[in-house]
# Entry
Amino acid sequence: MGKFVKIGGILGNYVIKGPDYTKLLFDRIRFILQKPKKKKAKKDFAHFVLALPETPITKADFETQLKKKKLKKIMKDKDLVNELTNQFIVKKSKIDSLEMMRVYKEYYPDASLPPPKPKKGKKGKKGKKDKKGAAEPDEQPAEQNLVGEEVTVQESEYQTPQLEDGEVPPPREIQRASNHGERHLAFQMEEIKTIEIPAEDEMPPEDQEVRLNLPTEIIEMQMVPEGDENVAEQ
# Structure
């Protein structure tokens, strides 16, 4: 004899649950973008979805956004892109990008935009290398404000003697003078006076009376012939 199996009644409100088709599409895209071994070649699909505009866009605009983010591997699989966009079609073949962002955050709560890139500062000029190979610093030292010092010039202790009228100053008198902190040496040459002696006729009568009486001696020499030197004088 065979076995009998009793089957219960079938519930009318039973809903068959299968895999989430939209999540499968997102998982497939994420897997393709994270497949490269090099870290720089890997892409995060969250950076693309969260950067979409909040207003509905066309499929052409959606593909343009893919080009800007350089998601070439996703663009090659056109069937995958079409299936994803068909899940959010609204208003005559337009894509509800805002709804796509909301659903993506539900599946992946940790999704976020990348941090802003730091601004690059201006690079200074490279320092010139000296003979030893050490690079000189780029920054030049600040110019020092040089303050000029006032130099006081002391006057010489030597004082020029006061001369009376007609007196000749000593030879090579040195006179020192200071002007604006600079020293100048002035040499005074000895003055040479020429005295003219007038003739007797031109001399005044007062000077003619004063005369020097010089003694004059007259020496008389007798000529003696040669050979008579021993002759006694008479």
Summary: The first strand starts at residue 89 and ends at 90. Residues 21-35+43-107 form one domain.
